[in-house]
Structure formats: structure tokens, C-alpha cells
Specification:
Blueprint: E1 4-7, E2 12-15, E3 23-28, H1 39-57, E4 61-66, H2 73-82, H3 86-103, H4 119-131, E5 135-138, E6 141-144, H5 160-166, E7 181-186, E8 201-203, H6 207-217, E9 221-227, H7 231-246, E10 251-257, E11 260-262, E12 265-266, H8 277-283, H9 286-294, E13 302-304, H10 306-333, H11 345-355, H12 357-366, H13 371-391, H14 398-418, H15 425-440, H16 444-459, H17 463-475, E14 478-483, E15 486-491
Parallel strand pairs: 3-4, 3-9, 9-10, 11-13
Antiparallel strand pairs: 1-2, 5-6, 6-7, 7-8, 11-12, 14-15
Helix pairs in contact: 2-3, 4-6, 4-7, 6-7, 9-10, 10-13, 10-14, 10-15, 11-13, 12-13, 13-14, 16-17
This protein binds one RNA strand through α1, α5, α7, β12 and α10.
Length: 492
RNA sequence: GGCCCCGUCGCCAAGUGGUAAGGCAGAGGUCUGCAAAACCUCCAUCACCCGUUCAAAUCGGGUCGGGGCCUCCA
């Protein structure tokens, strides 16, 4: 089995072969730090977090670089509005981003470089480009000359004539060709600047990624990723700059994730219909959001809505409840003395989906990181586990306990790649309960008191009263669960 | 206008030539004083049309519908 990845450059799935076997160089475009990140950022970063984890699971040594853009027009403008230092502003939102990503269960990349800490590297590349005749200086600005780079538009597959016809030169720009783009921007009064051979200024929009990718990963890397919207012009320009400067292929595989829609419409800053990760996490458990993101293939659009998030919560709960039941049985049965016999052929058939889980999971992930299908396999395994758990056949044949323990391991191992199911089931379920409690307007104490009252009513066989209590709580979203050990509750 | 993507059960979502995974919701059953959970059973022929093929949701052509990029954006 080999990993196949959809490469935007070729427009098809290709077998993944890193430049150096066993090592993967991965670069993903990070955020511009001028605002809290939204669920589109959440999706992109969760998707690449899973890719990072899976590549490691496959035995690769992965260097994952994700940059921060900490100097840029948007940052400068926002800082001006807020009357604070642009550097401070960037720092604040970089910290917020890291917090959000941690809550979403994303691992830290190997390196998280900042544009402002790579100015010498940026200047060096620009200088090379000028020397090679691929860039020119004009009034303190430096522009990349696209007509001298033959491969331009090979990633986005656009038509140059059409593009040129539609392009405009903004006031104050000194471009020779409307499609040329800035590598270096001269500083206006009051703007942050760095000294350069062309005078004080700051890097253009795309050059930082070329510089940081080359600095940390070398001139050719394996995977370069980002959102679909970065294909043009950002990634196209990165290719032009990088390959123009080094003469080497910049990246072998280009991976782009799809958008998050709100009510079937693209979520975007300009439309103003975006939710920040923070807002969403006030209402939903971070793992629910993560599960929701992974329930679709990374290239498909996903539609964000309360209904979809609630469905995701129910699905995730199903897994955690199975995991908890599994844990309980495994603990209580650990010391019991029961016979152990081989499973029959029929038993093996029943057990199949669980036995094959890791193999199926891998096949799904190998197929362009198909997390939706991988989750399907996980649920198949969960059903088998529940089945074995409910008919209690493990009480007569110890062999089943071993199988259950193995299934638990398998589910957790797969979950680890997805960054799911890693919380202790009991505490996750408890957390969910606490969150649901907020909506009911009830306190734990009030619920416990009603449970006590109902217990007494039941003991007196006053079932009408007992049922009235059940109904009353149910109306507020609290569900009572009777068991031989007593009554517990959970939220709907 | 150019380039690109999508249309699969009530909702979400896999499947991209060999006869439709999974989740949520729903119906019936087992369990329960009643419930819940869980389990069992049931629940789609893949927008439409025309082709290619022994065989198509999957390939080609067309129609209708939806969306994206081309300007900052994950």
C-alpha cells in the first residue's frame, strides 16, 4: 500500500515519493496575524495537522514548517486603527492563534518562523532575482517580472492574456507589466521598515514564504500546502520567485484544502459572514469541531451549521460512549477467571470489521487522506464492539476480552492520527454534560435532588411521580439513566 | 468572459467501470416498572437526457441547477 496524494499541479492523484526516502519536508502557509482566526483557518490547520500526523505514522521523519506573517499592510492598517504598535498587534494575534490551535488539538509544527525574523534571507533572494534579470527596482520598490519566468501560471492554469487584460496597476505602483508583483515595498512615513539595498522598506506579500521554506527545508521540498484560495496568486508567485532564484523545482506536491461555507456560501472576511474559532468554541467542544472538519474529505467544501455541528457531536459521543463501556468491562473483568477458547469461524466473521480496522483505516488515509472514509471504518469497529459488549459473550470466553482490548487499542491508535478520542472517555463525557447543563438552567444539585426524590418514589412504587420527574427533566434536556448501580444522567 | 469544482437516502457524507461505506434523524423489535443507551431488522440505483461498454453513480457529449478562483482571504 502506498500513499497517494492529489497534486494541484498535475490535477490528479499521484503516488507519494519524498525527495529523500523516509524524510518529508512539509511547508504550510500560516496566518497573517491581524485578527482572531476563523473556522476556515481551523479547517486548514486541522487538515494539515492530520497530514503531519499521518506522515509520521507512516514512519517518516517529518519537518513541518508553518509561518507567521507578522508584517503586512493589513497588520499595519489594523494597528493604526487601534493606535497601537503593529508589532504588538501581530504578537497578540500570534499568541491567540497558538492558543486556538492548541485547543483544537493541533500539534505544534517543527518550526514556526516569522517573516520579520527572515529579512536577510528575503533580501538575499530578491538580490539574486535582480541579478538574474527576473526582478527590477523602481523607486524603492522591487517587482518580479513575470514575463521572464516561462512557467508562470502553471499551478493555477490560467490564461496569461486574459489575466493581463483584467489586471490593474494600483496608484503609486511602478510596474512594467500589470501582472508583476511586489517583492519589496518602500516604506511610507510611519510604517515599519528594514534597511535594504533599495532603501528602507518591507517584504512584499509572497516572498517571505519562499525565504522561510528555503531556509528551513531547502530549495526543493516535498509538500507545500494551504487553502484553495492561495493557489493564485500566492502560490503561483512563490513558485516564480523560488524557482526563478534557485533554478530548482520548488515543491513536488501541492495540497489545497477546500473552504468552509456558511449556509452554502463561502465564508470570508469581505462578506463578513465568518465565525472565529473562539466564538464557535463557546458553544461546541473543540473535539466536536475537529470531528466535524474531518467528517468530510479535505478538498470538499463543508457547510458549517448548528445542525451539522450537533450531528457531529452525536457521532463523536457514540465513539466515546463505546470507549467508556469498553474501559469499564476491561477493568471489571481483568481479574475474573473464565475459560478461554478459540473463536469459531462465525465469531471471526462478526469480529471482522474490528479486526481489520487499522488496515482499512490505513487504506482510507492512503487514498489522499480520506478521513471521512476512515471515520466510517472507525464506526464499523465501534458497532462490533458494542455488539460484543451487549451480548456479554466475553463472560464465557476470555478470548473476547483480548479482542475487546485489541479493538480499544486499534480505535485509539487510529484516533491518534486524527487527533480524536484521546481524552479519557469519562472526563470527555463529563465535560459534555457540564456544557449541556448550562443550557438547561439547572444545577447539578437540583438534578441530584430530583433523582433522590424519584428514587424514593420508585421504591414506593409511585411510578406516576417517578415518571413525572423524568419528563420534567427531559423537557429541560436532561436524560435519566437507570442501571443496577443507580441512576445517572446526561444531557441530550 | 477565462479557468476550475460540485449535484449520491429527510440531513451530513464516502464511493470515480463490476452492481450504493458510515454518521445523524426515522420506523419496528429486544432490554426496561417506564425510559435512555446498546443491539437486531428496515429505510437510496446515485439531477436529467443521449452515448461508449458484457457491465456506469463512476467514462464521453449535452441540458438544468449550485459553487469557487481571476482583488486581501485558509
Amino acid at each position: 500500500m502506498t500513499l497517494r496524494i492529489y497534486n494541484t499541479m498535475s490535477g490528479s492523484k499521484e503516488e507519494f515519493q519524498p525527495i529523500e526516502p523516509g524524510k518529508v519536508r512539509l511547508y504550510v502557509c500560516g496566518i497573517t496575524a491581524y485578527d482572531y482566526c476563523h473556522i476556515g483557518h481551523a479547517r486548514a490547520n486541522v487538515v494539515f495537522d492530520v497530514i503531519f500526523r499521518y506522515l509520521k505514522r507512516l514512519g517518516n521523519e517529518v519537518t513541518y514548517v508553518r509561518n507567521f506573517t507578522d508584517v503586512d499592510d493589513k497588520i499595519i492598517n489594523r494597528a493604526k486603527e487601534l493606535k497601537i504598535d503593529s508589532c504588538e498587534l501581530a504578537k497578540r494575534f500570534m499568541a491567540a492563534f497558538s492558543e486556538d490551535m492548541a485547543r483544537l488539538g493541533c500539534e505544534s509544527p517543527s518550526v514556526e518562523p516569522k517573516a520579520t525574523e527572515n529579512i536577510p534571507q528575503i533580501v538575499a533572494i530578491i538580490r539574486t532575482l535582480i541579478d538574474k534579470g527576473l526582478a527590477y527596482e523602481a523607486d524603492g520598490d522591487v517587482y518580479f517580472s513575470i514575463e521572464h519566468f516561462p512557467g508562470y501560471l502553471k499551478l493555477s492554469k490560467r490564461n496569461m492574456d486574459e489575466m493581463v487584460a483584467g489586471a490593474r496597476i494600483a496608484p503609486g505602483e511602478q510596474k512594467r507589466n500589470p501582472m508583476d508583483f511586489a517583492l519589496w515595498k518602500a516604506a511610507k512615513p510611519g510604517e515599519p521598515y528594514w534597511d535594504s539595498p533599495w532603501g528602507p522598506g518591507r517584504p512584499g506579500w509572497h516572498i517571505e514564504c519562499s525565504a522561510m521554506s528555503m531556509r528551513y527545508l531547502g530549495s526543493s521540498i516535498d509538500i507545500h500546502g494551504g487553502g484553495k484560495d492561495l493557489v493564485f496568486p500566492h502560490h503561483e508567485n512563490e513558485i516564480a520567485q523560488s524557482e526563478g532564484a534557485t533554478g530548482q523545482p520548488f515543491a513536488r506536491y501541492w495540497i489545497h484544502n477546500g473552504f468552509v461555507n456558511i449556509n452554502q456560501e463561502k465564508m470570508s472576511k469581505s462578506l463578513g459572514n465568518f465565525f472565529t474559532v473562539r466564538e464557535v468554541l463557546e458553544k461546541y467542544d473543540p473535539e466536536v469541531l475537529r470531528f466535524f472538519i474531518l467528517s468530510a474529505h479535505y478538498r470538499s467544501p463543508i457547510d458549517f451549521s448548528d445542525k451539522n455541528l450537533e450531528d457531529a457531536r452525536h457521532g463523536l459521543t457514540r465513539v466515546y460512549e463505546a470507549l467508556q463501556a469498553l474501559e469499564e468491562v476491561l477493568e471489571t473483568q481483568a481479574g475474573s477467571v473464565i475459560p478461554e477458547t478459540e473463536l469459531t469461524g462465525e465469531d471471526e466473521m462478526i469480529w471482522q470489521p474490528a479486526a481489520r480496522l487499522e488496515e482499512d483505516f490505513r487504506a482510507a488515509m492512503d487514498d489522499d487522506f480520506n478521513t471521512a472514509q476512515a471515520l466510517g471504518h472507525l464506526f464499523e469497529a465501534v458497532r462490533v464492539v458494542n455488539r460484543v459488549l451487549s451480548d456479554r459473550r466475553f463472560e464465557t470466553n476470555r478470548h473476547w476480552l483480548k479482542r475487546l482490548a485489541a479493538a480499544r487499542e486499534g480505535i485509539l491508535r487510529c484516533g491518534q492520527v486524527l487527533g480524536l478520542f484521546q481524552t479519557k472517555p469519562g472526563s470527555w463525557l463529563e465535560r459534555l454534560k457540564d456544557a449541556g447543563l448550562g443550557e438547561s438552567g439547572l444545577s447539578k444539585e437540583a438534578i441530584e435532588a430530583l433523582i433522590e426524590e424519584r428514587k424514593a418514589a420508585r421504591a414506593a412504587r409511585n411510578f406516576p411521580r417517578a415518571d413525572a420527574i423524568r419528563d420534567e427533566l427531559a423537557a429541560k434536556g436532561i436524560i435519566l439513566l437507570d442501571s443496577p448501580q443507580g441512576t445517572t444522567w446526561k444531557t441530550k
